Amino acid sequence: MPANYPCPQLRPISEPHPQLAITAGQSERCTHLPGTRQNVINTITSWLNSVDGPPSNILWLTDIGGSGKSTIAHYIATNVAQSKQLLGSFFFQRDLKYYSSTIPVINDLSRQLAKSNGCIAAELARAAPAGDASCLEAFHTYITSPLRQNPPVRPSLIVIDALDESGPPTERAQFISALVNEAPLLPPTVKILLTSKPSQDIQEALDGLASPFIGEETEFGCHRLTFDVYGQTNRRDILLFISHSFQLVAQRKIASGIPLPDGWPSRIQRHSLTTHANGLFLWASIAAAHVDNAECPHTVLEELLALQHQSTPDAAMNALYNYVLLAAKSYSCFDLFTYQAVLKLVLSSENPLTISQVNDRIQRDVRPILACLKPVMRCSPGIRFVHHSFADYIQDSQRCDPMFLVAATSHVKPPIFGRSALSMSPNLVIRNNMHDNYVSTLLHEYCPLEDPLPYLGSDIKAGSISPYAITRGGFGDIWSALHVDGRQIAIKTLRPYGDLATFDRRTLEKRAIRELSVWRKLNHPNVLKLLGVCDLGGEIGMVSEWMVHGNIMQYTTEHKDANKLKLITNATTGLAYLHERGIIHGDLKGGNIVIAADGTARLVDFGLAKMTESALKFSATSTVKGTHRWMAPELMNPDEKSKAFVTFATDIYSMGMTILEIYSGRHPFVELMNDAQVIMAVNRGDIPQRPLFHVAPQLTDQIWELIKECWMMDGNARPSAAILLTRIMGSRPSYTRRETA
């Protein structure tokens, strides 16, 4: 894909994309195109107005994400409202706090019922306050009872859209249970339209829906409706949508002075786009938006059509999202730092933020990045994802390119050492001296006086700390700041993950000081240097140089011609240095190798790795940590259980996986879909497939045989770090290996 395209311009905030419109629930959705989805709309309309049909008054529209369920829900709600048959509606949306859980649904629907009918309003006014009433009691009091007392004369509808977006199953269980129990008690003229992706908890609840009429049965306990995304009717509808969408794109481009041939795209191109869509209106909508965002729509359309056909709708969306992100990166105004900063902030916010709010939070202009990401991001009135599937994609390491991966985040950031969590505020407190602060107390208690740690509180420029964690390592969060001499520096604070989260505070404090003590003793060009410590909001901050090139996977993705053998030699040299000093890294992978400004690879995030008994007298009972795709079989063997410790040999196994990752640019076991498959494969003694030449052209036969030795099932048969380094240094790069299947 060509690089350094001129940056696209961001449309005025008041101007949404022509394929999108603000609808109920304040969400930007694809508008329904007349003439499409007619079978589904007719089925829903007939069910709503039927008085002699099956007894169930619930219709569940369920299908895969991106198939257009919410578009239909909004269309039905709008039409029914115009005919005065809408009792109420609720559209779940995970990025709006109010609409992201089932807590407000009953109250919200009851208010809508009151507005629609004065008698119901009077009934609700007489009802006792909900107080500590259960969800079932509240549903009966505020919805079922008023409707039974004042049943609608005409068939009327309640719409509940995207029920699967209402939080985890445990949080929505009470509401779904109340809905299922109360639905049969509603008047026959009250119907409920539900939409969601297929979800086991929702299906099981609806399967148990009992008919209030003796002798009556229904297959699912409710009407179940799908789009049949692979059917010819759906294909025809998507073709119509693509034709309409690209016609609007062509009109806009021609109006802006960009010439396009008559009938563009051609009939063949439109049919090819339909095939690429794999039954998803979402694919078609984002593809049209991407072409609309391009300066050269004809070229971009050809690139879209050149994408490999995918076997499933999910795979089609993954390929499209990857292409859109690569295209965004090709713009001259795109930079990964701002990309990460913006998306992490959007993901962590309970409600959408405006452009000015995001600018203030990260202290830079985000409009160029948003312009690059226009096909998948919207900024009116707040910055949001066009579809939640893109948010899922960029947080999924199994699907997303490592360069664009955004660490999963949450709205609540629990503290470890401090009395309150580090907040999103730009005014994080750095205490300038080592007296009368929490960290100084910890250091005085646990750090040897004869080997004090440099305290850098007064050396960090006031107000320069990033307002949020820039990235997350295996054991902690990384913050950006400026040294008073102008250097950019990184501050690492610990965050408990997995088993660490169960440790008490004193244990965590001791382990933090242990990491500092270990790190302080290290001085090697291939190991990131600890500059000192600071007190960051009442937490220990470990200060190091900022690595401008990011990790080795980001670096080699951006620098296709990078000498990977040299970088691997750097990393292995660092590992040999650690092992020589009795230090087990414990979490080796590409994400934990960073690239310095001079292009040198350095190991990071060996924090909390235990010291062997023979080294600095620390315990050798290293606990299992790391990522399954890099972990040695002895760490995943169920027979080992509590005996599974990280060792020098497990580091070597992980290093072999890391070398493969660097050469291929892909996670180890890329051919396996999930960690469960990886665990079974590793325990069987399987190793990753050798990547084809075009994927890993720098991977020689000599190196491949060497890393296979790193993967020996018997840890004692693996080479030591020193031997591994010697053999890597003795190898020579070669680009003559032939392609093999």
Question: How would you explain this protein's 3D organization?
Answer:
- Residues 464-735 form the Protein kinase domain.
- Keywords: Kinase, Repeat, Transferase.
- This is Mitogen-activated protein kinase kinase kinase 1.
- The protein is of the alpha/beta class.
- The protein has 4 domains: 1-17 and 257-405, no CATH class; 38-225, 3-Layer(aba) Sandwich (Rossmann fold); 430-545, Phosphorylase Kinase, domain 1 (2-Layer Sandwich), CATH 3.30.200.20; 552-729, Transferase(Phosphotransferase), domain 1, CATH 1.10.510.
- It has 25 helices and 17 strands.
- Helix 6 (169-182) runs parallel beside helix 7 (200-207), helix 8 (232-255) runs parallel beside helix 10 (281-292) and helix 22 packs antiparallel against helix 24.
- The radius of gyration is 29 Å and the shape is globular.
- The protein starts with 19 loop residues before the first strand and ends in a 12-residue tail after the last helix.
What is the share of helical residues? 25-40%
- Give average pLDDT, whole number: 81
Low-confidence stretches: 11-29, 210-220, 410-429, 497-502, 608-626, 735-741
Instruction: Give the class from helix and strand content and strand pairing.
Output: alpha/beta
Name given to the CATH homologous superfamily of the largest domain: P-loop containing nucleotide triphosphate hydrolases
CATH class of the largest domain: Alpha Beta
Strand order of the largest sheet: 10-14-15-13-12-11
% residues in beta strands: 5-15%
What oligomeric state is this? single chain
The major β-sheet equals: 6 strands, antiparallel
CATH architecture of the largest domain: 3-Layer(aba) Sandwich
C-alpha end-to-end distance: 26 Å
State the domain count. Answer: 4
Number of strands: 17
Instruction: Enter the CATH topology name of the largest domain.
Output: Rossmann fold
Gyration radius (Cα, Å) is: 29 Å
Number of helices: 25
Described by the principal axes of the CA atoms, the overall outline is: globular
InterPro entries: Kinase-like_dom_sf, NPHP3-like_N, P-loop_NTPase, Prot_kinase_dom, Ser/Thr_kinase_AS, Ser/Thr_Kinases-Pseudokinases
Protein name: Mitogen-activated protein kinase kinase kinase 1
Pfam families: NPHP3_N, Pkinase
Keywords: Kinase, Repeat, Transferase
